[in-house]
Amino acid sequence: MLCLGLSGGLDKVYENRFQIANTFMHDGAAVLVRDGQVIAAVEEERLNRIKHSNKLPISSVQYCLSAAGVQLSEIDHVAYYATETYCNAMLENMLASEPNASIPLDAKFLVQQLLAQEFGSELDPSRISFVSHHQAHAVSAFAMSGFEQSLIFAIDGSGDFQSGLVAVGSGAEISQLATFPENNSLGLFYLEVIRYLGYGLFDEYKVMGLAPYGDPVPYRELFEQFYELSANGEYRVHLDRIGPTLLRTIQVRQKGMPFTQQHKDVSASLQEALERIVFHILRHHREATGMTRLCLAGGVAHNCSMNGKLLYSGLFEDIFVQPASHDAGCALGAALIVSGELGRPAPRARLQEVYWGPDLASDHAVEEELKAWAGHLEFERTEAVADRAAEWMAGGAVIGWVQGRSEFGPRALGNRSILADPRPATNKDRINAMVKKREGYRPFAPSVLEEDAREFFDLPGSACEFPFMNFVVRVRDSKRGLLGAITHVDGTARLQTVSRKASPAYWDVINAFKQRTGIPILLNTSFNNNAEPIVDSVADSIATFLTTGLDGLVVGPFLVKKRATTLEDWTALAVSLPPYVSLYKVRAHTALDRQETVCEIRTDHSSRDGVRISHDLFDLLTRIEGEAVLADLLDTITLDQAQREALTGELRRLWEQRRVRMRPSQAARVDQN
């Protein structure tokens, strides 16, 4: 029995027809389960390279079908991650705002039509289902927890006119106890506050990292005006009070401005308020149900600091957090819901790993990809890849590490990671400067051999398995000075324990590092720069390696270094525009307050996303039909050497921002072979 779960939007990658509020249709994914067991899963962003993609997960579906060796017509059931009523209401709202839009108002017919267009086979409508958004969150957690019984708490921003639920799971059944309306959304509560800290949607985790630098006391009473706690675990948030109050009280931070202590204190107060509300809800339902175990899902469940507080509280004997708690995880929940309805529920077993994405393919294919970049890369194959990588890191190198199938969810768990020595505190600044280009206050996570975790981290009870970076835990006092690169300002770390059985290649490289240094830990952060999702393919990893300051790259059994390059090496590359990019000429004010025509490249149809480019580069890019070798493009216009260098440099900066694509031309690939 094959069941396919979907999340995300309804536009193709180059379209913007269905501009439904991005607070709902985002984090597109496809998950394929056979008889209740996951056989393939990937987020669309990993494949179309659009962060938090709100597009139809076409590439994700293609991958899942390919992994199973089937056609769409062979799928027994397809499930979408929201109710049909909600989807139809969203379509009606869109039509009301755009009366001339050609949009069918039947969501099931629309999904059927879109899948038929892409995959050439029309599914019978009876094989397409729509499931409750928060029920999908709940099932995605409980079905993977291994618990026979537990309390389930699903909380996010919004979906299906709600923002969360509390339920009890028992066997294969989930019984709902309470739901939370959108106007009581804890996700929107958090989001509304961080707007005044210079952040927006998908930035919530950044504020979680900022909170330990602040003191919640100065704004505690202020924040108590924003919510009320009442009997039976009930609460109310006053979203309408937040903006007017903060505007009167704090200096609003604009994006890019420095953080003041005031901003840090507001972050601490926000985090404290969220935790206080969550504990209020859970204490009541823990007492009312007698449940000693807890499952968490929904976007708010990615708040690892909150999860850590729950872990240490002793309120529950065991807590399972769905590693893909955000909306991509609803694709998993949707698939499991319909699989269960068809008599194939998920086996009752604790989730051990989520390496469900595309594989690296054969070593030969990897080698051919590396050869194509001969002007930019040098590489060697080794059977001792873990030892050599550990040797690099022990010597101070920061490396990209790419092995096996990619992870499902937002965390790099050792198959698509940037790795480094966890000891020097300066490694935080190095990695931020060379790769991430992100705020310096944000912490990096440690990956530790499971058997050594307790020596370095103060773990509550008998728990020793934390494979998904879902909990912030305490670094032991005696180890904080030693682990300067992964210990946060409050003495904590977002921990991943690594099992030799679940992740043998990653365990091997950490163990090899331990043999050289005595430290069974590596700094682990996602392999991407600040403009892109986590890398998935070999091509992705090469692009990120060449556009960052990483010291080395390990892909499968290959050790990769950069070569010194010339202008000719760069102009030999082929250039193309991603399908989500558009070029514009617009009238704008210059620094001298004059109006003139400027050129922009945008990754959507919003002028807020535009990056200005030179008129010469605009002209060059408009000449591309599909893909073109840069040297050939430059030859179409009269340029001296300095101008060729300047345009090539400008193009490379756009590549770093993932607004253009650069890769070896087909001719170069043939020559290398």
TrEMBL record:
<dbReference type="InterPro" id="IPR031730">
    <property type="entry name" value="Carbam_trans_C"/>
</dbReference>
<dbReference type="InterPro" id="IPR051338">
    <property type="entry name" value="NodU/CmcH_Carbamoyltrnsfr"/>
</dbReference>
<dbReference type="InterPro" id="IPR043129">
    <property type="entry name" value="ATPase_NBD"/>
</dbReference>
<dbReference type="InterPro" id="IPR003696">
    <property type="entry name" value="Carbtransf_dom"/>
</dbReference>
<feature type="domain" description="Carbamoyltransferase">
    <location>
        <begin position="21"/>
        <end position="336"/>
    </location>
</feature>
<feature type="domain" description="Carbamoyltransferase C-terminal">
    <location>
        <begin position="390"/>
        <end position="562"/>
    </location>
</feature>
<dbReference type="InterPro" id="IPR038152">
    <property type="entry name" value="Carbam_trans_C_sf"/>
</dbReference>
<protein>
    <submittedName>
        <fullName>PROBABLE TRANSFERASE, NODULATION PROTEIN NOLO</fullName>
    </submittedName>
</protein>
<dbReference type="Pfam" id="PF16861">
    <property type="entry name" value="Carbam_trans_C"/>
</dbReference>
<dbReference type="Pfam" id="PF02543">
    <property type="entry name" value="Carbam_trans_N"/>
</dbReference>
<comment type="similarity">
    <text>Belongs to the NodU/CmcH family.</text>
</comment>
<dbReference type="GO" id="GO:0016740">
    <property type="term" value="F:transferase activity"/>
</dbReference>
<keyword id="KW-0808">Transferase</keyword>
